[in-house]
Amino acid sequence: MDGNLCRCTGYRPIWDAARALCDDAEDLVRGPCGTPCRECPERDVCEQDCNAEDKKAAEDDKAVCCTSSKDKVKAYRDTFLADQSWRDQPIKMFPKELMEDGSAVAALLTRPLMVVDRSEYHAGGTWFKPTTLTDLLALLKEFGGIRSGVCKLVVGNTEVGIETRFKQAVYPRLISPAESITELYSMNVTDENLIIGACCSLSTIQHECEILGADPSLTRSVMPIHDMLRWFASTQIRNVACLGGNLVTASPISDMNPMLAAMGATLTLSSLDDQNEIVRRHVRVSDFFLKYRTVDLKPTEVLECISVPRLGKVMEYVKPFKQARRREDDISIVTAGMKVKLTIQESKFVISDASIAYGGMVGFNSICYHK
User: Fold this and answer.
1) Is 164 helix (H, G, I), strand (E, B) or coil?
2) Looking at the chain, which residues constitute the CATH 3.30.465.10 domain(s)?
Protein backbone atom coordinates (compact mmCIF):
# COMPACT_ATOMS: atom_id res chain seq x y z
CA MET A 1 0.00 0.00 0.00
CA ASP A 2 3.00 2.33 0.06
CA GLY A 3 2.02 3.90 -3.26
CA ASN A 4 -1.24 5.10 -1.68
CA LEU A 5 0.43 6.57 1.37
CA CYS A 6 -0.12 10.28 0.88
CA ARG A 7 -1.14 13.20 3.04
CA CYS A 8 -3.65 14.18 0.35
CA THR A 9 -5.90 11.20 1.11
CA GLY A 10 -5.46 11.26 4.87
CA TYR A 11 -4.49 8.36 7.04
CA ARG A 12 -7.90 7.21 8.30
CA PRO A 13 -9.03 5.64 4.98
CA ILE A 14 -5.72 3.78 4.78
CA TRP A 15 -6.09 2.53 8.33
CA ASP A 16 -9.71 1.62 7.63
CA ALA A 17 -8.72 -0.33 4.52
CA ALA A 18 -6.05 -2.25 6.40
CA ARG A 19 -8.41 -3.07 9.25
CA ALA A 20 -11.04 -4.35 6.82
CA LEU A 21 -8.63 -7.16 5.90
CA CYS A 22 -8.13 -8.26 9.50
CA ASP A 23 -9.95 -11.06 11.29
CA ASP A 24 -11.42 -8.64 13.82
CA ALA A 25 -12.88 -6.34 11.17
CA GLU A 26 -16.38 -7.35 12.28
CA ASP A 27 -15.74 -5.51 15.54
CA LEU A 28 -15.49 -2.19 13.69
CA VAL A 29 -18.62 -0.09 13.74
CA ARG A 30 -17.51 3.04 11.92
CA GLY A 31 -18.90 5.04 9.06
CA PRO A 32 -17.14 7.05 6.35
CA CYS A 33 -16.78 9.92 8.82
CA GLY A 34 -14.56 7.75 11.03
CA THR A 35 -16.77 8.00 14.11
CA PRO A 36 -18.32 4.83 15.55
CA CYS A 37 -21.97 4.90 14.56
CA ARG A 38 -23.21 4.09 18.05
CA GLU A 39 -21.13 6.93 19.50
CA CYS A 40 -22.01 9.50 16.85
CA PRO A 41 -23.66 12.65 18.32
CA GLU A 42 -25.79 12.91 15.16
CA ARG A 43 -26.87 9.29 15.18
CA ASP A 44 -30.58 10.13 15.23
CA VAL A 45 -30.41 12.36 12.13
CA CYS A 46 -27.57 10.70 10.20
CA GLU A 47 -28.87 9.12 6.99
CA GLN A 48 -25.72 7.20 6.07
CA ASP A 49 -26.39 3.59 5.07
CA CYS A 50 -23.95 2.39 7.68
CA ASN A 51 -25.87 4.16 10.45
CA ALA A 52 -29.20 2.84 9.24
CA GLU A 53 -27.87 -0.73 9.11
CA ASP A 54 -26.24 -0.38 12.50
CA LYS A 55 -29.44 0.94 14.10
CA LYS A 56 -31.35 -1.98 12.64
CA ALA A 57 -28.64 -4.34 13.88
CA ALA A 58 -28.83 -2.75 17.31
CA GLU A 59 -32.56 -3.36 17.39
CA ASP A 60 -31.94 -6.99 16.44
CA ASP A 61 -29.05 -7.14 18.94
CA LYS A 62 -26.54 -8.01 16.22
CA ALA A 63 -23.06 -6.63 15.55
CA VAL A 64 -22.54 -5.08 12.14
CA CYS A 65 -19.32 -3.78 10.59
CA CYS A 66 -20.13 -0.35 9.16
CA THR A 67 -16.97 0.69 7.39
CA SER A 68 -16.67 2.05 3.90
CA SER A 69 -13.93 -0.52 3.29
CA LYS A 70 -16.24 -3.33 4.32
CA ASP A 71 -18.77 -2.20 1.75
CA LYS A 72 -16.06 -2.25 -0.90
CA VAL A 73 -15.00 -5.75 0.12
CA LYS A 74 -18.59 -6.92 -0.20
CA ALA A 75 -18.91 -5.29 -3.61
CA TYR A 76 -15.66 -6.95 -4.63
CA ARG A 77 -17.02 -10.35 -3.65
CA ASP A 78 -20.30 -9.76 -5.47
CA THR A 79 -18.65 -8.58 -8.70
CA PHE A 80 -15.05 -9.60 -9.26
CA LEU A 81 -15.20 -12.94 -7.51
CA ALA A 82 -18.61 -13.86 -8.91
CA ASP A 83 -17.52 -13.31 -12.51
CA GLN A 84 -13.79 -13.78 -13.04
CA SER A 85 -13.75 -13.19 -16.79
CA TRP A 86 -11.65 -10.10 -16.03
CA ARG A 87 -8.65 -12.39 -15.57
CA ASP A 88 -8.39 -12.69 -19.35
CA GLN A 89 -8.60 -8.95 -19.94
CA PRO A 90 -4.82 -8.38 -20.37
CA ILE A 91 -4.83 -10.90 -23.21
CA LYS A 92 -8.11 -9.93 -24.85
CA MET A 93 -7.47 -6.19 -24.89
CA PHE A 94 -4.41 -6.46 -27.16
CA PRO A 95 -4.37 -7.67 -30.78
CA LYS A 96 -2.84 -11.09 -31.23
CA GLU A 97 -0.21 -9.58 -33.50
CA LEU A 98 1.19 -7.66 -30.54
CA MET A 99 1.25 -10.72 -28.29
CA GLU A 100 3.09 -13.02 -30.71
CA ASP A 101 6.84 -12.45 -30.89
CA GLY A 102 7.11 -14.00 -34.33
CA SER A 103 4.37 -11.93 -35.95
CA ALA A 104 5.03 -9.31 -38.62
CA VAL A 105 3.61 -6.57 -36.40
CA ALA A 106 5.88 -7.54 -33.50
CA ALA A 107 8.85 -7.40 -35.86
CA LEU A 108 7.84 -3.91 -36.96
CA LEU A 109 7.65 -2.76 -33.34
CA THR A 110 11.33 -3.58 -32.86
CA ARG A 111 12.20 -1.00 -35.50
CA PRO A 112 12.56 2.75 -34.94
CA LEU A 113 9.13 4.30 -34.51
CA MET A 114 7.63 7.74 -35.07
CA VAL A 115 4.11 8.52 -33.92
CA VAL A 116 2.40 11.83 -34.70
CA ASP A 117 -0.06 12.73 -31.96
CA ARG A 118 -2.78 14.95 -33.41
CA SER A 119 -4.91 14.97 -30.27
CA GLU A 120 -5.39 18.02 -28.10
CA TYR A 121 -3.83 16.33 -25.08
CA HIS A 122 -0.67 18.24 -24.16
CA ALA A 123 -0.99 20.11 -27.45
CA GLY A 124 -0.14 16.97 -29.42
CA GLY A 125 3.41 16.40 -30.57
CA THR A 126 5.54 13.78 -32.28
CA TRP A 127 6.93 10.76 -30.44
CA PHE A 128 10.12 9.01 -31.50
CA LYS A 129 11.36 5.59 -30.38
CA PRO A 130 14.98 5.11 -31.47
CA THR A 131 16.27 1.55 -31.15
CA THR A 132 20.01 2.23 -31.19
CA LEU A 133 22.20 4.70 -29.33
CA THR A 134 23.35 6.20 -32.64
CA ASP A 135 19.74 6.85 -33.70
CA LEU A 136 19.01 8.48 -30.35
CA LEU A 137 22.00 10.79 -30.56
CA ALA A 138 21.17 11.61 -34.19
CA LEU A 139 17.69 12.78 -33.16
CA LEU A 140 19.14 15.00 -30.44
CA LYS A 141 21.61 16.44 -32.93
CA GLU A 142 18.88 17.03 -35.52
CA PHE A 143 16.51 18.78 -33.10
CA GLY A 144 19.16 20.90 -31.42
CA GLY A 145 19.32 18.94 -28.19
CA ILE A 146 17.18 18.73 -25.09
CA ARG A 147 17.72 22.40 -24.22
CA SER A 148 16.29 23.64 -27.51
CA GLY A 149 12.78 23.78 -26.06
CA VAL A 150 11.37 21.58 -28.82
CA CYS A 151 12.74 18.21 -27.74
CA LYS A 152 12.55 16.19 -24.53
CA LEU A 153 13.85 12.78 -23.53
CA VAL A 154 11.24 10.64 -21.74
CA VAL A 155 11.85 7.40 -19.85
CA GLY A 156 9.77 7.04 -16.69
CA ASN A 157 7.87 10.32 -17.27
CA THR A 158 7.89 11.08 -13.54
CA GLU A 159 9.38 14.54 -14.19
CA VAL A 160 8.15 15.35 -17.71
CA GLY A 161 4.63 14.34 -16.73
CA ILE A 162 4.65 16.99 -13.99
CA GLU A 163 6.08 19.61 -16.33
CA THR A 164 3.45 19.05 -19.03
CA ARG A 165 0.47 18.50 -16.77
CA PHE A 166 1.00 21.07 -14.03
CA LYS A 167 3.51 23.54 -15.45
CA GLN A 168 1.92 23.75 -18.92
CA ALA A 169 5.19 22.84 -20.62
CA VAL A 170 4.87 21.90 -24.29
CA TYR A 171 7.41 19.72 -26.09
CA PRO A 172 6.69 19.29 -29.82
CA ARG A 173 9.05 16.32 -30.00
CA LEU A 174 9.35 13.60 -27.36
CA ILE A 175 11.99 10.88 -27.57
CA SER A 176 11.52 7.60 -25.70
CA PRO A 177 14.55 5.27 -26.03
CA ALA A 178 13.69 1.64 -26.77
CA GLU A 179 14.86 -1.06 -24.38
CA SER A 180 16.91 -2.52 -27.22
CA ILE A 181 19.52 0.19 -26.51
CA THR A 182 21.59 -2.02 -24.23
CA GLU A 183 24.03 0.78 -23.42
CA LEU A 184 21.21 2.57 -21.58
CA TYR A 185 19.35 -0.36 -20.03
CA SER A 186 22.08 -2.82 -19.04
CA MET A 187 23.73 -3.25 -15.64
CA ASN A 188 27.16 -4.89 -15.42
CA VAL A 189 29.98 -5.52 -12.98
CA THR A 190 33.65 -5.24 -13.93
CA ASP A 191 36.77 -5.69 -11.85
CA GLU A 192 36.80 -1.97 -11.05
CA ASN A 193 33.23 -0.68 -11.37
CA LEU A 194 29.54 -1.29 -11.13
CA ILE A 195 28.19 0.07 -14.43
CA ILE A 196 24.53 1.12 -14.44
CA GLY A 197 22.71 2.11 -17.62
CA ALA A 198 21.12 5.54 -17.33
CA CYS A 199 17.66 4.19 -18.26
CA CYS A 200 17.70 1.35 -15.73
CA SER A 201 14.66 1.66 -13.49
CA LEU A 202 15.29 2.20 -9.81
CA SER A 203 13.50 -1.06 -9.00
CA THR A 204 15.80 -2.96 -11.36
CA ILE A 205 18.87 -1.43 -9.73
CA GLN A 206 17.54 -2.19 -6.26
CA HIS A 207 16.76 -5.80 -7.18
CA GLU A 208 20.10 -6.40 -8.90
CA CYS A 209 22.00 -4.87 -5.98
CA GLU A 210 20.23 -7.22 -3.61
CA ILE A 211 21.33 -10.20 -5.72
CA LEU A 212 24.88 -8.92 -6.14
CA GLY A 213 25.06 -8.25 -2.41
CA ALA A 214 25.28 -11.99 -1.81
CA ASP A 215 28.83 -11.83 -3.21
CA PRO A 216 31.12 -10.79 -0.30
CA SER A 217 33.39 -8.93 -2.69
CA LEU A 218 30.46 -6.71 -3.79
CA THR A 219 28.46 -6.36 -0.59
CA ARG A 220 30.10 -3.12 0.55
CA SER A 221 29.67 -1.57 -2.91
CA VAL A 222 26.07 -2.43 -3.78
CA MET A 223 24.17 -2.63 -0.49
CA PRO A 224 24.40 1.13 0.26
CA ILE A 225 22.73 1.73 -3.12
CA HIS A 226 20.08 -0.86 -2.30
CA ASP A 227 19.45 0.61 1.15
CA MET A 228 19.02 4.16 -0.16
CA LEU A 229 16.63 3.05 -2.91
CA ARG A 230 14.48 1.33 -0.30
CA TRP A 231 13.28 4.76 0.84
CA PHE A 232 13.31 6.39 -2.60
CA ALA A 233 9.69 7.38 -3.39
CA SER A 234 7.23 4.46 -3.62
CA THR A 235 7.35 1.07 -5.29
CA GLN A 236 5.23 2.28 -8.20
CA ILE A 237 7.55 5.23 -8.87
CA ARG A 238 10.69 3.11 -8.61
CA ASN A 239 9.24 0.72 -11.19
CA VAL A 240 9.39 3.39 -13.91
CA ALA A 241 11.77 6.16 -12.79
CA CYS A 242 15.36 5.79 -13.97
CA LEU A 243 18.66 6.74 -12.34
CA GLY A 244 19.74 8.86 -15.31
CA GLY A 245 16.67 11.04 -15.06
CA ASN A 246 17.31 11.45 -11.36
CA LEU A 247 20.80 12.77 -12.07
CA VAL A 248 19.98 15.01 -15.04
CA THR A 249 16.97 16.55 -13.28
CA ALA A 250 19.48 17.72 -10.65
CA SER A 251 17.10 17.94 -7.75
CA PRO A 252 19.02 19.47 -4.82
CA ILE A 253 17.38 17.05 -2.39
CA SER A 254 17.71 13.93 -4.51
CA ASP A 255 18.28 10.79 -2.48
CA MET A 256 20.86 9.18 -4.78
CA ASN A 257 23.02 12.04 -6.04
CA PRO A 258 24.95 12.83 -2.82
CA MET A 259 25.77 9.19 -2.24
CA LEU A 260 26.97 8.68 -5.81
CA ALA A 261 29.15 11.78 -5.43
CA ALA A 262 30.65 10.46 -2.20
CA MET A 263 31.33 7.08 -3.80
CA GLY A 264 33.34 8.77 -6.56
CA ALA A 265 30.96 7.72 -9.33
CA THR A 266 31.66 8.84 -12.89
CA LEU A 267 29.13 9.64 -15.62
CA THR A 268 29.59 8.74 -19.28
CA LEU A 269 28.12 11.42 -21.57
CA SER A 270 27.70 10.56 -25.25
CA SER A 271 27.12 12.60 -28.40
CA LEU A 272 27.77 12.50 -32.16
CA ASP A 273 30.64 14.35 -33.80
CA ASP A 274 30.64 15.86 -37.30
CA GLN A 275 31.35 12.43 -38.80
CA ASN A 276 28.37 10.97 -36.91
CA GLU A 277 30.68 8.90 -34.72
CA ILE A 278 29.86 8.43 -31.04
CA VAL A 279 32.07 10.55 -28.79
CA ARG A 280 32.15 9.94 -25.06
CA ARG A 281 33.41 12.09 -22.22
CA HIS A 282 33.53 11.30 -18.52
CA VAL A 283 32.51 13.59 -15.66
CA ARG A 284 32.57 12.86 -11.95
CA VAL A 285 29.20 13.15 -10.24
CA SER A 286 30.69 15.64 -7.79
CA ASP A 287 31.58 17.92 -10.74
CA PHE A 288 28.39 17.30 -12.73
CA PHE A 289 26.17 19.68 -10.72
CA LEU A 290 27.09 23.26 -11.58
CA LYS A 291 24.31 25.09 -9.71
CA TYR A 292 20.64 24.75 -8.87
CA ARG A 293 18.98 22.58 -11.55
CA THR A 294 22.00 23.03 -13.82
CA VAL A 295 24.34 20.22 -14.85
CA ASP A 296 27.40 19.80 -17.05
CA LEU A 297 25.50 18.28 -19.97
CA LYS A 298 25.81 19.66 -23.49
CA PRO A 299 22.58 20.13 -25.48
CA THR A 300 23.19 17.19 -27.82
CA GLU A 301 24.62 14.87 -25.17
CA VAL A 302 22.85 12.06 -23.40
CA LEU A 303 23.79 10.41 -20.12
CA GLU A 304 24.71 6.87 -21.16
CA CYS A 305 25.76 5.16 -17.93
CA ILE A 306 26.99 5.61 -14.37
CA SER A 307 30.19 3.92 -13.21
CA VAL A 308 30.41 3.35 -9.47
CA PRO A 309 33.87 2.28 -8.21
CA ARG A 310 33.92 -0.97 -6.28
CA LEU A 311 35.03 -0.65 -2.69
CA GLY A 312 37.84 -2.63 -1.18
CA LYS A 313 36.98 -5.90 0.53
CA VAL A 314 38.15 -4.49 3.85
CA MET A 315 38.77 -1.14 5.49
CA GLU A 316 36.47 0.84 3.15
CA TYR A 317 32.89 1.74 3.97
CA VAL A 318 29.97 3.67 2.45
CA LYS A 319 26.85 4.73 4.31
CA PRO A 320 23.76 6.55 2.97
CA PHE A 321 21.62 8.82 5.14
CA LYS A 322 18.21 10.39 4.58
CA GLN A 323 16.23 12.65 6.88
CA ALA A 324 12.56 13.20 6.06
CA ARG A 325 9.41 14.13 7.92
CA ARG A 326 8.29 10.54 7.65
CA ARG A 327 9.98 7.33 6.61
CA GLU A 328 7.76 6.11 3.76
CA ASP A 329 7.25 7.92 0.46
CA ASP A 330 8.34 11.39 1.52
CA ILE A 331 10.59 14.05 0.08
CA SER A 332 13.91 14.49 1.82
CA ILE A 333 14.82 17.33 4.11
CA VAL A 334 18.50 16.48 3.76
CA THR A 335 20.38 13.53 2.33
CA ALA A 336 24.00 12.49 2.70
CA GLY A 337 26.47 9.96 1.42
CA MET A 338 29.65 9.18 3.34
CA LYS A 339 32.62 7.05 2.31
CA VAL A 340 35.51 6.33 4.63
CA LYS A 341 38.73 4.42 4.01
CA LEU A 342 40.75 3.25 6.97
CA THR A 343 44.35 2.19 7.46
CA ILE A 344 46.19 0.83 10.48
CA GLN A 345 49.02 2.87 11.85
CA GLU A 346 50.71 2.01 15.13
CA SER A 347 47.92 -0.41 16.02
CA LYS A 348 45.27 2.27 15.53
CA PHE A 349 42.61 2.83 12.90
CA VAL A 350 43.32 6.00 10.95
CA ILE A 351 41.08 7.61 8.32
CA SER A 352 43.25 7.80 5.23
CA ASP A 353 40.52 9.10 2.91
CA ALA A 354 36.96 10.37 3.37
CA SER A 355 34.30 11.79 1.07
CA ILE A 356 31.13 13.33 2.41
CA ALA A 357 28.38 14.82 0.25
CA TYR A 358 25.15 16.51 1.35
CA GLY A 359 22.03 17.31 -0.63
CA GLY A 360 19.38 19.78 0.47
CA MET A 361 21.60 22.09 2.50
CA VAL A 362 22.10 24.94 -0.02
CA GLY A 363 21.10 23.58 -3.39
CA PHE A 364 23.48 20.64 -3.83
CA ASN A 365 26.57 20.64 -1.64
CA SER A 366 29.46 18.32 -2.20
CA ILE A 367 31.97 18.42 0.64
CA CYS A 368 34.97 16.18 0.17
CA TYR A 369 37.86 15.67 2.54
CA HIS A 370 41.07 13.93 1.57
CA LYS A 371 43.85 13.15 4.00
Assistant:
1) helix
2) 183-370
